[in-house]
Every structure is written in C-alpha cells, then in structure tokens.
Predict the 3D structure of the following.
Amino acid sequence: MVLGPKSAGPISPEQFADWVERSGIRLVPRSWHPISGRLMVVEEDATWPEDQTPTRLATVFRVAGAKVTAVLRLPDLESALDLAYICREMAATE
C-alpha cells in the first residue's frame, strides 16, 4: 500500500521500486519515531531532480519481517505520527 500527495492504493514491490528509480526522489532521514514492532515514522528531507530545495515530510512505514509492506507519505511529522498511532490502535483491536 502506498499513500502520497497524488494517489493512494495497492502497489507491488516491483512497481514501488520502479517508481522510486524513475522519480529520482532523494530522501535524507532526519528523525526516527518507532510506534510499534511493525510501524515506524521517519521524518525526511526530500529532493527531486527538478527541484533540489529540500522539502520536509514524514513517512509511516509498516513492516512484516524484513519487508516494507506499506509506505504512507504525509506532509509533516505531526500528521504522520497521528496516522501511525491510529493504525496501531486499529490493529490492536482486531
């Protein structure tokens, strides 16, 4: 599952890797926020080939074993933390 500013939906690992390569995005981690054993929020500075001015954003990563199974990109750390805590609580009540 991928969530970004332009769309959201299921995507295969191969499609995601292809998008990362084609987009030319560069992410520099700035802070890490473990939420649970499967959720992590990472605040990052992002740049793209057409604009080298860093944009601060945050991403919620969900993992299973050694694989990332969801990437949910949000415009700021507070939004990402809020979403991650909601996801954690929803999973705890299944």
Observations:
- The mean pLDDT is 89.
- The helical segments are 13-23, 77-92.
- The chain has two helices and six strands.
